[in-house]
Design brief:
The strands form four sheets. This protein has a five-stranded antiparallel β-sheet with strand order 11-4-8-7-12, with helices on both faces. Strands 1, 2, 3 and 13 form a four-stranded antiparallel β-sheet that branches. A two-stranded antiparallel ribbon has the order 5-6. The chain starts with 10 loop residues before the first helix and ends in a 10-residue tail after the last helix. Helix content is 31%, strand content 17%. It has eleven helices and 13 strands. The chain is globular.
Length: 461
Protein backbone atom coordinates (compact mmCIF):
# COMPACT_ATOMS: atom_id res chain seq x y z
CA UNK A 1 0.00 0.00 0.00
CA UNK A 2 1.11 3.56 -0.64
CA UNK A 3 1.01 6.26 1.99
CA UNK A 4 -2.35 7.56 0.75
CA UNK A 5 -4.00 4.15 1.08
CA UNK A 6 -3.87 3.12 -2.61
CA UNK A 7 -2.42 -0.28 -3.53
CA UNK A 8 1.10 -0.35 -4.90
CA UNK A 9 1.14 -1.09 -8.62
CA UNK A 10 3.26 -4.04 -9.68
CA UNK A 11 5.25 -3.89 -12.94
CA UNK A 12 2.65 -6.19 -14.52
CA UNK A 13 -0.19 -3.89 -13.50
CA UNK A 14 1.66 -0.86 -14.89
CA UNK A 15 2.11 -2.73 -18.16
CA UNK A 16 -1.61 -3.51 -18.27
CA UNK A 17 -2.50 0.15 -17.76
CA UNK A 18 -0.06 1.28 -20.42
CA UNK A 19 -1.41 -1.19 -22.99
CA UNK A 20 -5.06 -0.56 -22.09
CA UNK A 21 -4.60 3.18 -22.72
CA UNK A 22 -2.63 2.67 -25.92
CA UNK A 23 -4.06 3.08 -29.43
CA UNK A 24 -3.43 -0.58 -30.39
CA UNK A 25 -5.12 -2.23 -27.41
CA UNK A 26 -8.05 -3.56 -29.48
CA UNK A 27 -5.69 -5.18 -31.97
CA UNK A 28 -3.58 -6.73 -29.26
CA UNK A 29 -6.62 -8.26 -27.52
CA UNK A 30 -7.78 -9.63 -30.90
CA UNK A 31 -4.40 -11.36 -31.35
CA UNK A 32 -4.57 -12.79 -27.80
CA UNK A 33 -8.13 -13.97 -28.39
CA UNK A 34 -6.97 -15.79 -31.52
CA UNK A 35 -4.91 -18.28 -29.48
CA UNK A 36 -8.04 -19.35 -27.58
CA UNK A 37 -6.68 -19.09 -24.05
CA UNK A 38 -3.26 -20.67 -24.72
CA UNK A 39 -1.06 -20.15 -21.65
CA UNK A 40 2.24 -20.10 -23.54
CA UNK A 41 1.69 -19.08 -27.17
CA UNK A 42 4.46 -19.15 -29.75
CA UNK A 43 5.62 -15.79 -31.12
CA UNK A 44 6.24 -15.62 -34.87
CA UNK A 45 7.93 -12.93 -36.94
CA UNK A 46 7.51 -12.74 -40.71
CA UNK A 47 5.32 -11.70 -43.60
CA UNK A 48 2.82 -13.22 -46.01
CA UNK A 49 1.59 -12.35 -49.51
CA UNK A 50 -1.75 -13.33 -51.04
CA UNK A 51 -1.16 -13.77 -54.77
CA UNK A 52 -3.56 -14.32 -57.68
CA UNK A 53 -2.38 -17.58 -59.22
CA UNK A 54 -3.53 -16.62 -62.70
CA UNK A 55 -2.01 -13.16 -63.03
CA UNK A 56 0.62 -13.11 -60.29
CA UNK A 57 -0.95 -9.96 -58.88
CA UNK A 58 -0.36 -9.36 -55.18
CA UNK A 59 -3.83 -9.03 -53.67
CA UNK A 60 -2.87 -8.55 -50.03
CA UNK A 61 0.24 -8.08 -47.89
CA UNK A 62 0.72 -8.87 -44.21
CA UNK A 63 3.75 -8.26 -42.02
CA UNK A 64 4.23 -8.60 -38.29
CA UNK A 65 6.07 -5.26 -38.33
CA UNK A 66 2.63 -3.69 -38.54
CA UNK A 67 1.48 -5.37 -35.34
CA UNK A 68 1.58 -3.45 -32.05
CA UNK A 69 3.84 -6.10 -30.52
CA UNK A 70 5.92 -6.71 -33.65
CA UNK A 71 4.98 -10.40 -33.74
CA UNK A 72 2.04 -12.74 -34.21
CA UNK A 73 0.87 -15.31 -31.67
CA UNK A 74 -0.11 -18.90 -32.38
CA UNK A 75 -1.28 -21.51 -29.87
CA UNK A 76 1.44 -23.78 -28.47
CA UNK A 77 -0.65 -26.94 -29.02
CA UNK A 78 0.89 -28.64 -25.97
CA UNK A 79 -1.08 -31.72 -24.91
CA UNK A 80 -0.11 -31.56 -21.20
CA UNK A 81 -2.65 -29.93 -18.90
CA UNK A 82 0.14 -28.96 -16.49
CA UNK A 83 1.77 -26.86 -19.23
CA UNK A 84 -1.22 -25.36 -21.07
CA UNK A 85 -4.76 -26.15 -19.85
CA UNK A 86 -6.45 -24.58 -22.90
CA UNK A 87 -4.46 -26.45 -25.56
CA UNK A 88 -4.65 -29.70 -23.59
CA UNK A 89 -8.46 -29.50 -23.58
CA UNK A 90 -8.44 -29.24 -27.37
CA UNK A 91 -5.99 -32.15 -27.61
CA UNK A 92 -8.17 -34.21 -25.26
CA UNK A 93 -11.27 -33.47 -27.34
CA UNK A 94 -9.47 -34.45 -30.54
CA UNK A 95 -8.26 -37.69 -28.95
CA UNK A 96 -11.80 -38.44 -27.76
CA UNK A 97 -13.21 -38.06 -31.27
CA UNK A 98 -10.38 -40.12 -32.76
CA UNK A 99 -11.00 -42.99 -30.31
CA UNK A 100 -14.78 -42.65 -30.56
CA UNK A 101 -14.74 -42.85 -34.36
CA UNK A 102 -12.90 -46.16 -34.14
CA UNK A 103 -15.56 -47.48 -31.77
CA UNK A 104 -18.89 -46.30 -33.15
CA UNK A 105 -18.05 -44.93 -36.60
CA UNK A 106 -17.86 -41.46 -38.08
CA UNK A 107 -14.95 -39.41 -39.47
CA UNK A 108 -14.78 -41.78 -42.43
CA UNK A 109 -15.30 -44.97 -40.39
CA UNK A 110 -18.55 -46.94 -41.00
CA UNK A 111 -20.97 -47.50 -38.10
CA UNK A 112 -20.70 -51.25 -38.64
CA UNK A 113 -17.35 -51.11 -36.81
CA UNK A 114 -19.37 -51.37 -33.60
CA UNK A 115 -20.00 -55.02 -34.42
CA UNK A 116 -16.29 -55.90 -34.55
CA UNK A 117 -14.62 -57.63 -31.56
CA UNK A 118 -13.20 -54.85 -29.35
CA UNK A 119 -11.21 -55.18 -26.16
CA UNK A 120 -10.06 -52.52 -23.71
CA UNK A 121 -6.66 -53.66 -22.41
CA UNK A 122 -4.44 -52.29 -19.64
CA UNK A 123 -0.82 -53.46 -19.63
CA UNK A 124 1.02 -52.68 -16.40
CA UNK A 125 4.59 -52.44 -15.22
CA UNK A 126 6.07 -55.11 -12.94
CA UNK A 127 7.06 -54.37 -9.36
CA UNK A 128 10.52 -52.94 -8.77
CA UNK A 129 9.97 -52.62 -5.03
CA UNK A 130 7.05 -52.04 -2.64
CA UNK A 131 5.58 -48.53 -2.61
CA UNK A 132 2.84 -46.78 -0.66
CA UNK A 133 -0.52 -47.12 -2.39
CA UNK A 134 -4.12 -46.07 -2.00
CA UNK A 135 -6.26 -49.21 -1.94
CA UNK A 136 -10.04 -49.42 -2.17
CA UNK A 137 -12.58 -52.22 -2.25
CA UNK A 138 -16.28 -51.64 -2.84
CA UNK A 139 -15.85 -47.97 -1.97
CA UNK A 140 -14.08 -48.72 1.32
CA UNK A 141 -10.55 -47.44 1.91
CA UNK A 142 -8.14 -50.22 2.89
CA UNK A 143 -4.77 -50.20 4.68
CA UNK A 144 -1.81 -49.59 2.39
CA UNK A 145 0.30 -52.72 3.04
CA UNK A 146 -0.95 -54.66 6.08
CA UNK A 147 1.44 -57.34 7.30
CA UNK A 148 0.71 -59.42 10.37
CA UNK A 149 4.36 -60.26 11.06
CA UNK A 150 5.60 -56.64 10.69
CA UNK A 151 8.67 -57.63 8.57
CA UNK A 152 11.65 -55.37 7.99
CA UNK A 153 13.89 -55.21 4.93
CA UNK A 154 17.67 -55.72 4.85
CA UNK A 155 18.08 -51.99 5.56
CA UNK A 156 15.98 -52.21 8.72
CA UNK A 157 12.99 -50.37 7.26
CA UNK A 158 9.41 -51.67 7.74
CA UNK A 159 7.93 -53.55 4.82
CA UNK A 160 4.40 -52.86 5.99
CA UNK A 161 2.10 -49.84 6.27
CA UNK A 162 -1.26 -49.73 8.06
CA UNK A 163 -2.11 -46.22 6.86
CA UNK A 164 -5.24 -45.60 4.78
CA UNK A 165 -3.89 -43.10 2.28
CA UNK A 166 -6.32 -40.41 1.21
CA UNK A 167 -6.15 -38.89 -2.31
CA UNK A 168 -3.30 -36.41 -2.52
CA UNK A 169 -1.24 -38.06 0.22
CA UNK A 170 2.38 -37.26 -0.81
CA UNK A 171 3.51 -40.73 0.32
CA UNK A 172 1.52 -42.47 -2.44
CA UNK A 173 3.95 -43.94 -4.96
CA UNK A 174 7.00 -43.48 -2.72
CA UNK A 175 9.02 -46.63 -1.90
CA UNK A 176 8.81 -48.14 1.57
CA UNK A 177 12.60 -48.40 1.32
CA UNK A 178 14.52 -46.50 -1.35
CA UNK A 179 17.50 -48.80 -0.80
CA UNK A 180 15.43 -51.84 -1.82
CA UNK A 181 13.83 -50.21 -4.86
CA UNK A 182 15.32 -51.34 -8.19
CA UNK A 183 15.84 -47.91 -9.79
CA UNK A 184 17.96 -49.27 -12.63
CA UNK A 185 15.23 -51.73 -13.57
CA UNK A 186 12.48 -49.10 -13.32
CA UNK A 187 14.30 -46.63 -15.59
CA UNK A 188 15.23 -49.30 -18.13
CA UNK A 189 11.65 -50.57 -18.15
CA UNK A 190 10.30 -47.07 -18.88
CA UNK A 191 12.87 -46.65 -21.65
CA UNK A 192 11.77 -49.89 -23.35
CA UNK A 193 7.96 -49.65 -23.02
CA UNK A 194 7.64 -48.80 -26.71
CA UNK A 195 9.63 -51.86 -27.75
CA UNK A 196 7.66 -54.06 -25.34
CA UNK A 197 4.43 -52.85 -26.97
CA UNK A 198 5.83 -53.51 -30.45
CA UNK A 199 6.70 -57.07 -29.47
CA UNK A 200 3.30 -57.49 -27.85
CA UNK A 201 1.54 -56.64 -31.12
CA UNK A 202 3.78 -59.11 -33.00
CA UNK A 203 3.08 -61.89 -30.51
CA UNK A 204 -0.64 -61.04 -30.59
CA UNK A 205 -0.78 -61.61 -34.35
CA UNK A 206 1.17 -64.85 -33.95
CA UNK A 207 -1.27 -66.19 -31.39
CA UNK A 208 -4.24 -65.24 -33.58
CA UNK A 209 -2.65 -67.07 -36.51
CA UNK A 210 -2.01 -70.12 -34.33
CA UNK A 211 -5.65 -70.17 -33.23
CA UNK A 212 -6.86 -70.10 -36.84
CA UNK A 213 -4.28 -72.71 -37.86
CA UNK A 214 -2.89 -70.50 -40.62
CA UNK A 215 0.45 -68.89 -41.39
CA UNK A 216 1.20 -65.33 -40.34
CA UNK A 217 1.32 -64.31 -44.00
CA UNK A 218 -2.16 -65.77 -44.53
CA UNK A 219 -3.38 -63.99 -41.40
CA UNK A 220 -2.63 -60.57 -42.91
CA UNK A 221 -4.82 -61.55 -45.89
CA UNK A 222 -7.77 -62.35 -43.62
CA UNK A 223 -7.43 -60.12 -40.57
CA UNK A 224 -6.12 -56.76 -39.42
CA UNK A 225 -5.42 -55.85 -35.78
CA UNK A 226 -6.28 -52.18 -35.25
CA UNK A 227 -5.57 -50.29 -32.05
CA UNK A 228 -5.28 -46.94 -30.31
CA UNK A 229 -3.36 -46.58 -27.06
CA UNK A 230 -2.19 -44.03 -24.52
CA UNK A 231 0.52 -44.15 -21.87
CA UNK A 232 -0.22 -43.21 -18.26
CA UNK A 233 2.35 -42.45 -15.59
CA UNK A 234 1.68 -43.94 -12.17
CA UNK A 235 2.61 -42.21 -8.93
CA UNK A 236 5.50 -44.70 -8.56
CA UNK A 237 7.06 -43.29 -11.74
CA UNK A 238 6.30 -46.21 -14.06
CA UNK A 239 4.18 -46.27 -17.19
CA UNK A 240 0.97 -48.18 -17.85
CA UNK A 241 -0.53 -48.60 -21.33
CA UNK A 242 -4.28 -48.37 -21.97
CA UNK A 243 -5.21 -49.75 -25.39
CA UNK A 244 -8.36 -50.24 -27.43
CA UNK A 245 -7.75 -53.31 -29.64
CA UNK A 246 -10.15 -54.12 -32.50
CA UNK A 247 -10.26 -56.96 -35.02
CA UNK A 248 -11.06 -55.97 -38.63
CA UNK A 249 -11.00 -57.43 -42.09
CA UNK A 250 -7.78 -57.03 -44.11
CA UNK A 251 -8.75 -53.50 -45.30
CA UNK A 252 -9.53 -52.17 -41.83
CA UNK A 253 -12.72 -50.98 -40.15
CA UNK A 254 -14.77 -51.08 -43.35
CA UNK A 255 -14.58 -54.90 -43.40
CA UNK A 256 -15.79 -57.48 -40.93
CA UNK A 257 -13.17 -59.91 -39.55
CA UNK A 258 -13.49 -63.64 -40.35
CA UNK A 259 -16.03 -65.63 -38.35
CA UNK A 260 -13.38 -67.37 -36.26
CA UNK A 261 -12.02 -64.01 -34.97
CA UNK A 262 -14.31 -63.63 -31.96
CA UNK A 263 -13.99 -61.58 -28.80
CA UNK A 264 -13.08 -64.71 -26.84
CA UNK A 265 -10.29 -65.53 -29.29
CA UNK A 266 -8.96 -61.96 -29.04
CA UNK A 267 -9.01 -62.07 -25.24
CA UNK A 268 -7.12 -65.37 -25.12
CA UNK A 269 -4.54 -64.13 -27.63
CA UNK A 270 -3.98 -60.92 -25.64
CA UNK A 271 -3.28 -62.87 -22.44
CA UNK A 272 -0.94 -65.26 -24.22
CA UNK A 273 0.98 -62.49 -25.96
CA UNK A 274 1.38 -60.42 -22.79
CA UNK A 275 2.72 -63.44 -20.92
CA UNK A 276 5.19 -64.41 -23.63
CA UNK A 277 6.83 -61.05 -24.29
CA UNK A 278 10.39 -60.93 -22.97
CA UNK A 279 13.10 -58.39 -23.73
CA UNK A 280 16.75 -58.81 -22.77
CA UNK A 281 18.69 -55.56 -22.22
CA UNK A 282 22.23 -54.84 -20.99
CA UNK A 283 22.49 -54.59 -17.23
CA UNK A 284 25.60 -52.40 -17.11
CA UNK A 285 29.02 -52.92 -15.52
CA UNK A 286 27.77 -52.22 -11.98
CA UNK A 287 25.33 -55.12 -11.96
CA UNK A 288 26.03 -58.73 -11.05
CA UNK A 289 24.27 -59.97 -14.20
CA UNK A 290 25.43 -58.80 -17.66
CA UNK A 291 21.80 -58.47 -18.81
CA UNK A 292 18.30 -58.27 -17.36
CA UNK A 293 14.95 -59.42 -18.72
CA UNK A 294 12.04 -57.00 -19.02
CA UNK A 295 8.42 -58.10 -19.19
CA UNK A 296 4.89 -56.85 -18.53
CA UNK A 297 3.51 -56.82 -15.00
CA UNK A 298 1.19 -59.51 -13.70
CA UNK A 299 -1.83 -57.17 -13.47
CA UNK A 300 -3.21 -57.48 -16.98
CA UNK A 301 -6.76 -56.13 -17.29
CA UNK A 302 -8.99 -56.91 -20.29
CA UNK A 303 -12.59 -55.75 -20.70
CA UNK A 304 -15.00 -56.21 -23.59
CA UNK A 305 -16.27 -52.89 -24.95
CA UNK A 306 -20.06 -52.77 -24.95
CA UNK A 307 -21.98 -51.60 -28.01
CA UNK A 308 -24.59 -49.55 -26.18
CA UNK A 309 -24.39 -46.74 -23.65
CA UNK A 310 -24.93 -47.96 -20.10
CA UNK A 311 -23.70 -47.40 -16.58
CA UNK A 312 -20.83 -49.77 -17.26
CA UNK A 313 -17.53 -47.93 -17.70
CA UNK A 314 -16.68 -50.17 -20.67
CA UNK A 315 -19.45 -48.76 -22.86
CA UNK A 316 -17.88 -47.46 -26.07
CA UNK A 317 -18.21 -43.69 -25.53
CA UNK A 318 -17.09 -44.00 -21.91
CA UNK A 319 -13.99 -45.88 -23.04
CA UNK A 320 -13.23 -43.08 -25.49
CA UNK A 321 -13.49 -40.52 -22.69
CA UNK A 322 -11.42 -42.69 -20.36
CA UNK A 323 -8.56 -42.99 -22.86
CA UNK A 324 -8.72 -39.31 -23.86
CA UNK A 325 -8.39 -38.29 -20.22
CA UNK A 326 -4.96 -39.91 -19.99
CA UNK A 327 -3.82 -38.35 -23.27
CA UNK A 328 -3.23 -34.98 -21.55
CA UNK A 329 -1.43 -36.29 -18.48
CA UNK A 330 2.33 -36.10 -18.25
CA UNK A 331 4.86 -37.44 -15.79
CA UNK A 332 4.09 -34.76 -13.19
CA UNK A 333 1.80 -37.20 -11.32
CA UNK A 334 4.99 -39.06 -10.34
CA UNK A 335 6.47 -35.94 -8.76
CA UNK A 336 8.89 -34.99 -11.54
CA UNK A 337 9.21 -31.88 -13.72
CA UNK A 338 7.98 -31.31 -17.28
CA UNK A 339 11.09 -29.68 -18.69
CA UNK A 340 14.40 -31.13 -19.78
CA UNK A 341 17.36 -31.19 -17.41
CA UNK A 342 20.50 -29.66 -18.85
CA UNK A 343 23.16 -30.60 -16.29
CA UNK A 344 23.67 -33.09 -13.47
CA UNK A 345 24.25 -30.21 -11.03
CA UNK A 346 20.66 -29.05 -11.61
CA UNK A 347 19.14 -32.28 -10.28
CA UNK A 348 19.75 -31.44 -6.61
CA UNK A 349 17.85 -28.16 -6.99
CA UNK A 350 14.74 -29.55 -8.66
CA UNK A 351 11.42 -29.24 -6.84
CA UNK A 352 10.63 -32.95 -7.04
CA UNK A 353 9.98 -35.85 -4.69
CA UNK A 354 12.90 -37.89 -3.36
CA UNK A 355 11.71 -40.85 -5.41
CA UNK A 356 11.56 -38.84 -8.64
CA UNK A 357 14.99 -37.37 -7.91
CA UNK A 358 16.43 -40.86 -7.48
CA UNK A 359 14.96 -41.95 -10.83
CA UNK A 360 16.31 -38.82 -12.54
CA UNK A 361 19.75 -39.45 -11.06
CA UNK A 362 19.55 -43.05 -12.28
CA UNK A 363 18.71 -41.83 -15.78
CA UNK A 364 21.74 -39.55 -15.68
CA UNK A 365 24.05 -42.32 -14.42
CA UNK A 366 22.83 -44.98 -16.87
CA UNK A 367 22.81 -42.44 -19.67
CA UNK A 368 26.56 -42.06 -19.31
CA UNK A 369 27.20 -45.77 -19.84
CA UNK A 370 28.10 -47.04 -23.33
CA UNK A 371 25.70 -49.97 -22.86
CA UNK A 372 22.74 -47.57 -22.77
CA UNK A 373 23.91 -44.74 -25.01
CA UNK A 374 21.26 -45.39 -27.68
CA UNK A 375 18.48 -44.78 -25.12
CA UNK A 376 19.31 -41.06 -24.68
CA UNK A 377 18.40 -41.37 -21.00
CA UNK A 378 19.85 -38.00 -20.04
CA UNK A 379 17.67 -36.31 -22.64
CA UNK A 380 14.62 -38.05 -21.16
CA UNK A 381 15.60 -37.87 -17.49
CA UNK A 382 12.69 -35.52 -16.72
CA UNK A 383 10.39 -38.25 -18.09
CA UNK A 384 12.06 -40.83 -15.82
CA UNK A 385 13.45 -42.63 -18.87
CA UNK A 386 10.21 -42.86 -20.86
CA UNK A 387 10.96 -41.75 -24.41
CA UNK A 388 7.93 -42.92 -26.34
CA UNK A 389 4.77 -41.22 -27.57
CA UNK A 390 1.95 -40.82 -25.07
CA UNK A 391 -0.64 -41.62 -27.72
CA UNK A 392 -0.39 -43.82 -30.84
CA UNK A 393 -2.77 -45.63 -33.17
CA UNK A 394 -2.54 -48.13 -35.98
CA UNK A 395 -2.86 -46.88 -39.55
CA UNK A 396 -6.44 -48.04 -40.21
CA UNK A 397 -7.94 -47.48 -36.75
CA UNK A 398 -9.82 -44.27 -37.57
CA UNK A 399 -9.09 -40.67 -38.52
CA UNK A 400 -5.92 -38.78 -37.55
CA UNK A 401 -5.22 -35.88 -35.22
CA UNK A 402 -3.86 -34.00 -38.24
CA UNK A 403 -7.16 -34.36 -40.08
CA UNK A 404 -9.11 -33.12 -37.06
CA UNK A 405 -6.81 -30.13 -36.66
CA UNK A 406 -7.02 -29.38 -40.36
CA UNK A 407 -10.82 -29.35 -40.26
CA UNK A 408 -10.78 -27.04 -37.24
CA UNK A 409 -8.28 -24.67 -38.90
CA UNK A 410 -10.37 -24.58 -42.07
CA UNK A 411 -13.49 -23.74 -40.08
CA UNK A 412 -11.72 -20.93 -38.20
CA UNK A 413 -10.29 -19.56 -41.45
CA UNK A 414 -13.74 -19.57 -43.04
CA UNK A 415 -15.24 -17.75 -40.05
CA UNK A 416 -12.46 -15.16 -40.20
CA UNK A 417 -13.00 -14.72 -43.96
CA UNK A 418 -16.70 -14.05 -43.46
CA UNK A 419 -16.07 -11.55 -40.65
CA UNK A 420 -13.53 -9.67 -42.77
CA UNK A 421 -15.78 -9.65 -45.84
CA UNK A 422 -13.19 -11.36 -48.03
CA UNK A 423 -14.23 -13.20 -51.22
CA UNK A 424 -14.97 -16.91 -51.07
CA UNK A 425 -12.17 -19.25 -52.23
CA UNK A 426 -14.15 -20.07 -55.35
CA UNK A 427 -14.42 -16.42 -56.38
CA UNK A 428 -10.68 -15.93 -56.88
CA UNK A 429 -7.82 -18.36 -57.39
CA UNK A 430 -5.30 -17.27 -54.79
CA UNK A 431 -2.30 -18.67 -52.97
CA UNK A 432 -0.49 -17.56 -49.84
CA UNK A 433 3.27 -17.28 -49.72
CA UNK A 434 4.82 -16.61 -46.31
CA UNK A 435 8.15 -16.44 -44.50
CA UNK A 436 8.04 -17.07 -40.77
CA UNK A 437 10.53 -17.64 -38.00
CA UNK A 438 10.32 -18.47 -34.32
CA UNK A 439 10.80 -15.50 -31.97
CA UNK A 440 10.17 -17.02 -28.55
CA UNK A 441 7.16 -18.09 -26.53
CA UNK A 442 4.97 -16.91 -23.68
CA UNK A 443 3.50 -13.61 -22.55
CA UNK A 444 4.96 -10.74 -20.62
CA UNK A 445 3.46 -10.57 -17.08
CA UNK A 446 1.15 -7.76 -18.12
CA UNK A 447 0.00 -9.52 -21.27
CA UNK A 448 -0.72 -12.65 -19.24
CA UNK A 449 -3.05 -10.63 -16.99
CA UNK A 450 -4.87 -9.19 -19.99
CA UNK A 451 -5.14 -12.59 -21.66
CA UNK A 452 -6.45 -14.09 -18.41
CA UNK A 453 -4.17 -17.12 -18.41
CA UNK A 454 -3.55 -19.02 -15.18
CA UNK A 455 0.24 -19.24 -15.46
CA UNK A 456 1.78 -15.91 -16.48
CA UNK A 457 5.35 -16.33 -17.65
CA UNK A 458 8.12 -13.98 -18.63
CA UNK A 459 9.08 -13.79 -22.27
CA UNK A 460 11.44 -16.60 -23.26
CA UNK A 461 14.34 -15.99 -25.59
Amino acid sequence: MTGDGFPTLTPAMREVLAQANGPDFARWTAIAKGVHGCARPVRLIGDELTVHTGTGEVIDRYSTTDEPTGYLLTACGNRRAAVCPACSRIYQADTFHLIRAGLIGGKGVPESVRLHPRLFVTLTAPSFGPVHARRERNGRLLPCRPRRQRPACAHGRPQWCDERHEPGDPRIGQPLCAGCFDYDGAVLWNAHVGLLWQRFTIYLRRRLADHAGISRTRLSQELRVSFAKVAEFQARGLVHLHALIRLDGPEGGSERPPEWATLAVLGEAVHQAAEEVRLSVPGGPDEAEPSRTLRWGDQLDTRAVLTAASDDRTADEKVAGYIAKYATKGAEVSGTVHHRIRAAADIEHLDVTDHARAMIQTCWRLGGMPEHSELNLRRWAHMLGFRGHFGTRSRRYSTTLGALRGARSAERAENARVLQGLPAPGDEQTARVGRWRYAGSGYTPGQALIAGVDTPEDLAG
